[in-house]
Amino acid sequence: MKIFSISVLAVFLLNLPGQALEYGVGPLNESDTVYFNSRARLEFIQGKTQHINGSFTFDTGNPDSAITAKLRVDLRTLKTGIDKRDEHMCDNHLHTVKYPYAYFELESVEPVSSLTTFDSAYTAKASGSFYIHGNFRKTNADLILVRKRLPTGGESIDVRAKFSINLDDYKIPRPKALFLKLAETIEVEAVFSGSTDIASKSVELPDWPELK
């Protein structure tokens, strides 16, 4: 009876007008993965990790309002399939001892009104800031979003985000051992789900300078 009452209350709250919901991301959800893809002339290299945490907020009663989010990825856990290459990438490329995390702050999504419908995929454009290697830059990402109801009475939003970063723009050197095998532009793809059933994790952004 107590579990049923909690579920009924959750459904009621989800349908209140102007109800801003918090969607927790992580920890270590098996379906959450961030990919860093390098498509150099000599070799394709993919680094990936499931260590993504954070949260985003969406006001279901005001679908024209912005979605906001702060996410953190543990770069120390990136795996490319070769241990020695992982070591070189962390030590000589990303300098993860000093900069162990990358961050993304989502500032706006257009359009978001489509998220009033459940179980349909929608494309959207996101604007925000990407933090890595002691700097951050404004960036735009292509999104695919799917809003779902959960058996518990809560809801989730599945996200697939894609954007690119230029290593020189972020002052990230290409180690000599990988210079010809690592592309100057890295494609970043994040596939994750935020859920009202997961406690949102507060992410504090670092005080890094913005690069123009």
Characterise the protein shown here.
The chain is 12% helix and 44% strand. The protein is mainly β. Strands 1-4-5-6-7-8-9-10-2-3 form a ten-stranded antiparallel sheet, with no helix packed on it. The chain starts with a helix and ends in a 17-residue tail after the last strand.
Number of helices: 2
CATH-defined architecture = Beta Barrel
Estimate the helix proportion, in percent.
10-25%
CATH topology: Lipocalin
Largest sheet: 10 strands, antiparallel
Instruction: Give the strand tally.
Output: 10
What is the overall shape? elongated
| SS content category | mainly beta
What attributes characterize this protein structure?
single chain, 212 residues, mainly beta, Lipocalin, 2 helices, elongated
Characterize this entry briefly.
The chain is mostly beta strands.
List the helices and strands and how they pair.
Blueprint lengths: L1 H13 L5 E6 L7 E7 L4 E6 L2 E8 L8 E7 L8 H12 L6 E10 L10 E12 L2 E15 L5 E12 L18 E11 L17
Antiparallel strand pairs: 1-4, 2-3, 2-10, 4-5, 5-6, 6-7, 7-8, 8-9, 9-10
